[in-house]
Specification:
By secondary structure, the protein is α+β, with helices and mostly antiparallel strands. It has four domains: about 160 residues, no CATH class; about 140 residues, no CATH class; about 30 residues, no CATH class; about 110 residues, no CATH class. It is about 40% helix and about 15% strand. The protein contains 15 helices and 13 strands. The strands form five sheets. It has a four-stranded antiparallel beta sheet with strand order 10-11-12-13, with no helix packed on it. Strands 5-6-7 form a three-stranded antiparallel beta sheet. A hairpin with a 3-residue loop joins strand 6 and strand 7. Helix 5 runs parallel beside helix 7. The longest helix has about 30 residues. The radius of gyration is 29 Å and the shape is globular. It starts with a helix and ends with a strand. About 10% of the residues have low confidence.
């Protein structure tokens, strides 16, 4: 039976309404769980380990149990950080934005949209947050998501300009660059920078992309692809400087510069050349015909692209430790896969292209079966490496936090009186300090039956099995 387009559209609209109802019900359930959550702990704990309550959102929201977000992350199947954000969002709506909360429950406003507005108002006083929420609610109808978010930003600044300036200063103090979102051999880069620095970086990337476009080898690439390649070139500043000099000051003595991805890696340096500009190709200097010396006429180089590169750019590249895991069976075939920590799975052929032109040092493989357990409390460097190979991410339900840098916790509490080795593979797991605390006070219970698996039981009795790469929920 053929379905008409209008009938399918009506079904879609009904599904969207049902989705709003489900999101509103979920938010109400989160609120009820957070408010009612309480657990029993050992009364004999020292004061430093006592469980405390924390404010669940902005001014006017109630205190909540410090471990409730860990319970919620298992129920929602999300990370602990995401669960904490959901609690923050819901409590802000309920206690600081009654008009928005009523609209969500009445299906007149999407939960995700209302939560965005409430989160942006979280630093305002309760009264100012309510006022901004009311203003925004009456003006946001018909606006696209970005426009609605921009409207909140403006109203928040107008409500308390001094607070907005203080918050902007705080955000500036938390500038960062983050790698995330790997897919098919490429990765996203997000940077939190000063606004003008970001605009100048964007202009520099655009400039280098235009320079790359002049090379016939890049003729098939789009502008956005060339911008991405340009940002990669900035990782070696000498290469970027050489390209700028070559394009902006053709008469300069700076020799041509080539990027490793555009060169023939088999081409080697000539012994008599000086270390000039190329990453793997060393260029001869240009000599003044009268003096026989290198021509360094400053008039041939004007502006920020001045400067002669006297060290091979390849030597200027920083050292970076990258962990790549390849199955021994994949080494014998071209179609194998490789896993790059903090990135993800890529084709071995793609890996070969990514490593082309780079100096690579291969570390020996750690055979987990040959590493004996240790007597001391803190694991040796080799033991730490082995445990991180067993659990590349935090050994807690649905966590995706990389294990490197986390605490290594003994699954069974370490006993000084015990003479048996208690530190080793199968006896420990990487945990965030908050999870470690929850386990220490017996709020969460962990059991490690085999080295690559930890079974967790939450205070409400839910059970989760955490393995190297996934979580299995059990009732």
């Amino acid at each position: 039976m053929k379905v008409s387009g209008r009938a399918a559209a009506d079904r879609l609209k009904a599904a969207l309404i049902a989705g709003r109802q489900a999101a509103a019900d979920e938010a109400m359930a989160i609120h009820d769980l957070v408010v009612a959550y309480d657990i029993e702990i050992d009364d004999d704990l020292i004061d430093e380990l006592l469980v405390t309550s924390v404010r669940g959102g902005g001014e006017g929201t109630p205190q909540v149990h410090e471990f409730v977000h860990l319970e919620l992350c298992g129920l929602l199947g999300v990370s602990a950080r995401h669960a904490r954000s959901r609690i923050f969002e819901v409590l802000n709506l309920v206690y600081r934005h009654p008009i928005l909360w009523a609209a969500v429950q009445g299906l007149g406003l999407e939960m995700h949209r209302a939560g965005m507005a409430a989160t942006k108002c979280s630093d305002l006083s309760r009264a100012d947050a309510d006022l901004v929420g009311r203003q925004w609610f009456h003006q946001q109808e018909g606006l696209a998501w970005k426009a609605a978010a921009d409207l909140v930003d403006r109203l928040v600044i107008e409500a308390d300009p001094a607070l907005a300036k203080k918050k902007q200063d705080q955000v500036a103090a938390c500038r960062e660059v983050v790698l995330w979102g790997h897919r098919e051999g490429v990765i996203d880069v997000t940077a939190r920078m000063d606004a003008l620095d970001a605009l100048y970086l964007d202009a520099t990337v655009d400039q280098l992309a235009d320079i790359l476009r002049t090379d016939e080898a890049n003729a098939a690439h789009t502008k956005q692809v060339l911008r991405a390649k340009a940002l990669g070139i900035l990782a070696t500043p000498a290469l970027a400087l050489g390209l700028q000099q070559q394009a902006l000051n053709p008469a300069t003595t700076q020799p041509a510069v080539q990027h490793p991805l555009l060169e023939d890696p088999s081409q080697g340096p000539e012994p008599e050349d000086i270390h000039d500009a190329g990453p793997s190709v060393l260029r001869r200097p240009v000599l003044d015909p009268e003096t026989g010396r290198v021509n360094r006429d400053p008039h041939q180089c004007i502006g920020h692209a001045c400067g002669r590169i006297t060290v091979p750019p390849a030597k200027l590249q920083p050292k970076s430790k990258v962990y790549i895991h390849v199955d021994d069976q994949d080494l014998s075939r071209l179609g194998g896969a490789a896993f790059i920590e903090k990135v993800g799975w890529i084709s071995s052929l793609t890996l070969k292209n990514l490593l082309g032109g780079k100096n690579v040092t291969i570390q020996p493989v750690i055979d987990l079966n040959t590493i004996p357990s240790e007597l001391q409390y803190r694991p040796s460097a080799r033991m730490r490496e082995a445990i991180q190979l067993v659990f590349p991410t935090e050994a807690f339900p649905y966590s995706h936090t990389p294990s490197r840098g986390l605490e290594l916790d003994h699954t069974v509490a370490y006993r000084k009186s015990c003479r048996d080795p208690q530190t080793g593979v199968g006896l420990m797991g990487p945990l965030h300090h908050k999870v470690h605390h929850a386990k220490t006070v017996a709020a969460w219970h962990a059991q490690q039956r085999i080295p690559v698996e930890i079974v967790w039981r939450s205070p409400l009795g839910f059970q989760y099995t955490v393995t190297k790469d996934r979580t299995y929920a059990r009732e």
